[in-house]
Specification:
mainly alpha, 5 helices, LRAT_dom, LRAT domain-containing protein
Length: 131
């Protein structure tokens, strides 16, 4: 795919969190994808009844221009670190830009499962060592 005429982003250059114009972000190669509003401050029950990645119980703490300033600074100076699907993904980036919290509700389930598996393994090893 050639570089975007608006923002000059080229797909082969970077992976992870990228900086593009809105049209390039929405383009899937055939058509424009629709945008969905991410909502903050949802009650727990509402959160459980919606699709993951569409809302959070956390409250938004910054104005739009502050979020954009934070995102540009983090991205331009590569302060957010290397992309990692579980521990440092685009939702972590957005949540940090909006609330200064490094969090991803989409990956929290996977992280919880990893932790529980590790705990079960440690418990089993202790049990086996006793015998």
């Amino acid at each position: 795919m050639p570089p975007c005429k608006e923002c000059e982003y080229q797909e082969t250059i970077n992976r992870g969190v990228i900086k593009t114009c809105l049209d390039y972000f929405r383009w899937d190669g055939k058509k424009f994808r629709s945008l969905h509003y991410y909502e903050y401050g949802w009650p727990l029950l509402g959160l459980k009844l919606t699709r993951r990645g569409t809302c959070t119980m956390l409250l938004a703490t910054k104005l739009a221009h502050q979020v954009i300033d934070t995102a540009c600074k983090l991205h331009d100076k590569n302060y957010f670190g290397n992309y990692n699907l579980i521990n440092n993904n685009c939702e972590h980036f957005v949540t940090f830009c909006q609330m200064d919290i490094h969090s991803s509700e989409q990956t929290a389930f996977v992280s919880d499962c990893e932790r529980k598996i590790k705990e079960a393994k440690e418990w089993t090893m202790k049990l086996l060592q006793r015998n």
